Amino acid sequence: MPYTEESMNALRQTGDELADATVATLFERGEVGKFNALMRHVSTAGQELPQGLPEVAREYLHVTATPPAWVDWEEMEKARLFFIDNNVHISTALSFASMPACYVVPHVARLLSATHSLRYPSKRMAETGQFTVYLMQPDAFEAGSRFIPAAQKVRLLHASVRHHLGREGLWDVAGLGTPICQEDMIGGQMMFSIQVLDALHRLGIHMSVDGAESYYYAWRVVGAMLGVDQRHVPKDLAEARRFSDLYMTRHMGPSAEGADLTRQLIDLYEEVVPGTFFDPVVSALIRHLVGDTCADWLDVPRTSWDTVVKVAPVLLNVLETIEDRSPLGAWGLDRLGHLTTLFELSSLTRGRVMHYAVPEQLKKDYGVSSGVPRTRRWTPPPPAVPL
Predict the structure, then answer these.
(1) What is the C-alpha end-to-end distance of the chain, expressed in Å?
(2) pLDDT tens readout for residues 297-318
(3) pTM of this prediction?
């Protein structure tokens, strides 16, 4: 579908009607505390809902308990295999490309600064990593899985942010539109899908066309479950490129909030990396993946490692070639990637399960072998908008 300035502006005026109405009712009736207390015990799909749960929440959970009827399960399985094949690379792309891409959109950076304490960036990274791991489990949409309850709670979390920012006058609705509006939700979907694929391409990762399309498809399903209006969502990677390029050129730029969030992200991963010798790799990798212009906007420091990191795609290409040609090599690298991803996630969560709750007030709560053929290598579609 064609995307224009006018159609994108229209998407800035709407949020998520179902989740917004549910949250508004919970606040009107003073039931948010009860909801959060009871929902901490609801962590798997198909679990019996606790007695005393507010009726409006019970109805919301019933309506959102199943994935969209249009889901192609073969595509979802291909997406899962793609994730298994590339999990450590996807984690790298999420951390060092997708998150900085969020920060380079000033109003998104401002929103994240208003709703997530800058002193605890690990919380957001841990929540994102845990959510992605839940999504890519074989039973993600079956009884006993953790993904569906997580998606239901994240959707209400977004609605609660809209509720607080609007009620407390902390957001310029006239100038910026609805907080976490449909345009920004679709934009976020692009950052976790096509921009991840772009980052994998820059890293030299081998991807099939089918694998890339399936990975994007999985995030379309996620978007639907998070309240994104599917009438406006790009249906494939070519459409996604057009939306993503227009969205970024409409909004990206420097901001103090974006620079602050990026500094916190760099500090976080420098703590995860053992010792101090390799600390500059974090900044160098971000700069390599987002480009010099965006990196400068985010005040990413230039380091002596900037040139060294550019060798990474060559080394990864060698490893990917080994994986392509050797089933044993593929198994070993997939296993290493799985263990690395678990180590990174456990470092961020400190071994805890992250809970997604409706904040009662922003200041208090937030501190204002894959089986997929590797033929037909995927390369990013050309820019749809002159950059």
Answers:
(1) 21
(2) 999 999 887 777 766 665 555 4
(3) 0.82
